[in-house]
Amino acid sequence: MPDKKKLLRSLAGEAMDVPPVWLMRQAGRYLPEYRATRAQAGDFLSLCYNPELAAEVTLQPIRRYGFDAAILFADILLIPQALGADLWFVTGEGPRLSTITDASGMTRMKGKDDIHERLSPIYETVKILSGELPAETTLIGFAGAPWTVATYMIAGRGTPDQAPAHKLREEDPETFSALIDLITEATIEYLDMQVKAGAEVVKLFDSWAGSLKGDSFDRFALAPAKRIIAELKSRHPDLPIIAFPREAGDKYIGFAKEVGADCLAIDTSVDATWAAENLQIDGCVQGNLDPKLMVTGGEALRSEAKRICAALKGGPHIFNLGHGITPDADPENVHHLLEAIRG
């Protein structure tokens, strides 16, 4: 195992004195080189669908910082677009989609096997990265989890409480379940193609999992993740998978084991000592520095990074943030973070 990539060693269950490090949204607007490349592409979606430029922005933080992993540059809303939804981005406001609010909306959707023509540039990006990344750097593919993707497809945009999706879930459970099933099947095919193109690990982002409570969490966050992971593992038995049911609270306990994930990513609200006692017993934990510290920096950044590492030192740990790095982060603070972790 010593010659194996560091991130893969953690995912296989090895505890290390110095954990592997990567950051969610590490390719992004906080980096001047990213902003220059995005300007070259013209707009965000054009950047996602340009394999050469998408590979370039994925590689930029690796060149600058030497992270232990690179995550494919794409967006969780490419799946809805591939299924037939209209997708566009409003500057300063974020994504907008055509909506599904009743059964008629489902009739306009394509099937899971019809997504690949639209998504073929993403697979090409993965192939480029597989050939260009340093030998020690792990390539991570990803997708949004069905519930989170569905919230955007139903509301047509991000919402503070996912109320439109909850309303459809309660008032038209048949349409809602059909949408979750379609996204689940499409996600399996999408991630399968990423792995075939060269992704060594995949991550499932359920950014709005925390708004599902009780049985609804089990049915629409846990069960789809379990289905996706089981199918991917049947096709790729050695594929490590990271699950991120953000803000799941006590529902984090046992989640990785139940869904079959090799690693559980945790958000900023989770205390690292609690995570060591309650989550790391099931395997690798990823997280969970507050992204705000990447803006403010200073001794608070260094001490908190060291505290997290010390708390999770007894088991497999991948150091990351509790959510994505923000556009106002100071690029120099990433260097300070790595110095605190790696010494």
SS element count, helices: 16
Low-confidence stretches: none
The strands making up the biggest β-sheet line up spatially as 1-4-5-6-7-8-9
The helix content, as a percent range, equals 40-55%
* Average pLDDT level: 97
Q: Gap between N and C termini, in Å?
A: 23 Å
Return the structural class: alpha/beta
Compute the gyration radius: what is it? 19 Å
Beta-strand portion reads 5-15%
What composes the largest sheet?
7 strands, parallel
Secondary-structure element pattern, one letter each = HHHHEHEEHHEHHHEHEHEHEHHEH
Count of distinct strands = 9
What characteristic shape results from the CA principal axes? globular
Fold and architecture overview:
With 343 residues, the protein is α/β, with parallel strands linked by helices. It has helices spanning 6-11, 32-41, 44-48, 51-65, 78-83, 103-106, 116-132, 146-155, 163-171, 173-197, 215-235, 255-259, 272-278, 293-296, 298-311, 331-342; strands at 69-71, 87-90, 94-97, 138-144, 201-206, 241-245, 263-265, 284-289, 317-321. It has a seven-stranded parallel β-sheet. Strand 2 (87-90) and strand 3 (94-97) form a beta hairpin. The radius of gyration is 19 Å and the shape is globular. The two termini are 23 Å apart.
